[in-house]
C-alpha cells in the first residue's frame, strides 16, 4: 500500500486497491467510505442552503449541521484505514504456528482478541452512521429544496454503509467464543440497524414524494 493511508489515494487508486487480489481494503473499509460520502453530501446540502434568503431562519442550525458533517466525514474516513489496521493482526494471527498445545492455546487466544478488535471497527461505522442520519433528518426540513435529491442519495449511502457494516460485524463475531461479547454486539447491531434503515427508508420516500 506504499506508505500512504488509503484516504490519501485517488478514487481510481482506491477502487483498484479494493479490486486487487488481496484481503485489504475490503468490505469494512468500503462501508466506512459510504458513511463518509453520506456525510459529505450533508455538508454540500448545508453549504448551498446557508445564506439563501428563503432559508435564512435556519442559517444557525444549518451551520451547526455543516460543522458536524465535517467532523463525521473525517471520523468515517479514518475508519477506512482503521478497518485495514484491525484486520492485519487477525490475518497474521491465523498464520501463527500450532504444533504444540501451548502454541495452539496462544494462537486461539490471539485470534479471539483480534476478532474482537476487527468487529469493533464496523460497529464504530454503525455508530457514526447514526449521527450522520440526524443531519439528513434535519436537512429534509431545513435544507434547500434544490438539493433535496442529495439528501435522498445521502441516506441511501448511509443505508448501504449500515448493511455492509452489519455483515462485517457478523462475520467476525461468528467465530468469537465470548458469548457476553457476542450478545452485546448483536443487541447494539439490531437496534442501530433497524433505527437507521427505517429512518433512511422514510427520508428517501419523503424525498421521492417531493420530487414527483
What does this structure look like?
This protein is mainly alpha-helical. It has a single domain, classed as Four Helix Bundle (Hemerythrin (Met), subunit A). It has helices spanning about 10-20, 25-50, 60-95, 100-140, 150-175, 180-210. It is elongated. The N and C termini lie far apart (about 45 Å).
Task: Give the topology, please.
Blueprint: H1 11-19, H2 27-49, H3 59-93, H4 101-142, H5 148-173, H6 179-211
Helix pairs in contact: 2-3, 2-4, 2-5, 3-4, 4-5, 4-6, 5-6
Keywords for this entry:
212 residues; mainly alpha; Four Helix Bundle (Hemerythrin (Met), subunit A); 6 helices
Which sheet architecture does the biggest sheet show? none
* Overall CATH architecture: Up-down Bundle
CATH superfamily: Formiminotetrahydrofolate cyclodeaminase monomer, up-and-down helical bundle
Give the mean pLDDT: 96
Number of domains: 1
> How many strands?
0
Radius of gyration: 20 Å
**Roughly how much helix do the residues carry, as a percent range?**
over 70%
Tell me the CATH topology: Four Helix Bundle (Hemerythrin (Met), subunit A)
What is the CATH C-level name? Mainly Alpha
Shape: elongated
Summarize the structure in short.
This protein is mainly alpha-helical and 212 residues long. The chain is 79% helix and 0% strand.
Amino acid at each position: 500500500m506504499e506508505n500512504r493511508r488509503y484516504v490519501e489515494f485517488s478514487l481510481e487508486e482506491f477502487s483498484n486497491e479494493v479490486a486487487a487480489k488481496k484481503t485489504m481494503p475490503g468490505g469494512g473499509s468500503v462501508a466506512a467510505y459510504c458513511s463518509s460520502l453520506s456525510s459529505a453530501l450533508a455538508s454540500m446540502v448545508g453549504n448551498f442552503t446557508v445564506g439563501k434568503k428563503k432559508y435564512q431562519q435556519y442559517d444557525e442550525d444549518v451551520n451547526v449541521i455543516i460543522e458536524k458533517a465535517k467532523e463525521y466525514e473525517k471520523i468515517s474516513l479514518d475508519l477506512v484505514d482503521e478497518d485495514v489496521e484491525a484486520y492485519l493482526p487477525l490475518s497474521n494471527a491465523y498464520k501463527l504456528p500450532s504444533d504444540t498445545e501451548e502454541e495452539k492455546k496462544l494462537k486461539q487466544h490471539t485470534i479471539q482478541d483480534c476478532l474482537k478488535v476487527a468487529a469493533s471497527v464496523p460497529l464504530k461505522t454503525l455508530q457514526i452512521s447514526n449521527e450522520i442520519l440526524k443531519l439528513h433528518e434535519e436537512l429534509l426540513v431545513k435544507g434547500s429544496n434544490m438539493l433535496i435529491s442529495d439528501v435522498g442519495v445521502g441516506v441511501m449511502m448511509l443505508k448501504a454503509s449500515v448493511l455492509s457494516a452489519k455483515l462485517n460485524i457478523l462475520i467476525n463475531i461468528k467465530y468469537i467464543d465470548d458469548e457476553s461479547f457476542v450478545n452485546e454486539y448483536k443487541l447494539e447491531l439490531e437496534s442501530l440497524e433497524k433505527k437507521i434503515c427505517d429512518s433512511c427508508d422514510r427520508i428517501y420516500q419523503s424525498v421521492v414524494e417531493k420530487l414527483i
